[in-house]
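B., you asked whether I could sanity-check this one before it goes into the benchmark set. Here's the sequence:
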Amino acid sequence: MPLTLPGGGLLTSGLTTGQAPFIEEARSRGELYIEQPWELYSDDNHESWKRLYGRIRPRWERYANEHFLRGLDALELPRDRVPRLAEVNRTLRPLTGFEARAVSGYVPAFLFFDCLRRREFPTTITIRPHDKLDYLPEPDIFHDIAGHVPMHTDRAFAEALVRFGDCAHTAVDMTAAVKDEAEQCRRLTSIIKALSRFFWFAVEFGLMRGRNGVCAYGSGLLSSYGELEHAVASDRPQRYPMQIEWAINQAFEIDRYQPLLFIVDSFDHLFDLVDRLEKWMRAGKLNDVAPGEPGVSETDLRSFLRADPSS
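And here's what the prediction gave me:
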């Protein structure tokens, strides 16, 4: 049933990634943080969630870490419909203080890390179409809620995410003192690249040691039916103990199965690694990381340059 938008326009139902008028309207008004209009999800949207959840659940049981599985049980995510963020947050907040916060699209780098510091997780509310269940270059609600959020129920993992947010504020503090604008931008670009790479390997595609061997905790793995098994069971990826100096200088590509993965011992170990990353930043060790992907956009750079270090 069509709904009326602010300003009087009509909006048809459906929150399919790349085909959602509600999202386009929010972006046109400059709204980044939004509400989840759950009533707009179409039957096809709910069917996408049902198919995604149903086929990957057995692989979670086999390849996911025990913290994720406990979080999944605690959240009781629906199997046959898109979850309501309000329901997810009612369970999540008392456990670690985190909550999923709906956004209309890409969140600039500083704002993203600052959200983690405030125990908020920017959450996409659209869902991929039926013909793209296996791969979508941008995040969707299945990646964010089914891939990320069960991990946010674990206190040690949640504290590691908060430390990532602290790192962003440290980056602002460290570069604000640089008077030469060109040098300030150069250092920030290197630091953002280092933070992005470490987050990629440590949060999106992380492996950890479990009781039965190596298992997955990275959200990019836990939300991908194909890559989850490939990352844990295939002999093709290279897997090494996490090394900060390697991760921050290692380029990556988003549109292929990852050929290189890093392993942490525990989430206390992950926290210590993020803590050490911040110390390296203060010592200037992130000012000249290796070139290559990911690129740093002007939007991401501006988000750090305009950030208030006292906030």
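One thing to flag: Residues 15-305 form a domain with the Phenylalanine Hydroxylase fold (CATH 1.10.800.10). Otherwise nothing jumped out at me.
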